[in-house]
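Students often ask why we bother encoding 3D structure as a string. The short answer is that it lets us treat folding as translation between two languages. Here is a chain of 335 residues written in the first language.
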Amino acid sequence: MKNNSVLYFLSCIIWIHLFLSGSWLYAQQKAVIDKQALSEILEKNRSYIKQGTIADYIPELAKMESTAIAFAVADSKGNIISSGDTTKKFTMQSISKIIALMVAVQEIGESSVFKNMGYFGSDRPFNHFANLETTGKPLNPMMNAGAIMTTSFIKGEGEDAFIKILEMVRYITKNKTIDYNKAVYNSEKETGNKNRGMFYLMKNNGLINGDENKLDNYFKQCSIELTVEDLAKIGFFFANQCVRFDGDSTYRNVELSKLIQSQMLIAGMYEFSGEYARTVGLPSKSGVGGGIVACVPGRIGVGVFSPPLDTHGNSLAGYHMLLDFVKKYNLSVFQ
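And here it is in the second language, the structure alphabet:
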């Protein structure tokens, strides 16, 4: 009788162990990020394309294919998983600001970059003068004014600063074919009087030295063209201490990674950043070209693309894809 009780007890323990192991494996299987999962999220949110508006204040951007949509993830092992129009190229626009910030900080240090600029968030649109007319200093490097000043800090003559930013994008994505779209650049330059006003106001305040070549570098960096898979690789890079998706640690820098991600979290989605932090909860950076890059710190990088924008200048379908993705895999930094 005693032996039977022991055997029964052991069998119960084994059964519980197998049940829990099975449940854990099932949960792990459910949590796998694969092409099918991304495709399902993409298709669920495709309808948001019709509710957004393509950026037309830059004439060349108005020509973008409104129905294009794509989703990509660089997983924890650096594998690229993607769905949708993954070969469709689009311009980085404001996403380039995180690369420019990285290059500037590497060259002159964080304290020098932020000496005349804040770490603040904003309740104003990306192209707002904010407090330039009062304190003379940009709020942060994610708004246009701060980004223009950041790029002006990068050393070199002529288009040297732009080339450094372009080469860094090529390195991070391991894609040497990436270049800038000359038509978009010319369109931005011709219509960029508001940015030109910011440039000269900061120049007048002694924050920027040099001529409009420095502003041209900003227009060019915004015109860099890539794909959604390239975006996911950029997200992975900053999420993983500036280590590339293939493990290359040439630029590994924990503090720089923290700086970039913190700015993405508080200001990367402009005046929507606070609500975005509450709903999505990931360091992210959008661009009016329709892309959004997101970081899951220490884990993965995400890229989404859909040209129609919401009223804040962020991809509408892209936001909703990220929102569903984060909910499905419980990825918010706020647990």
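Translate back mentally: The radius of gyration is 22 Å. Keep this in mind for the problem set.
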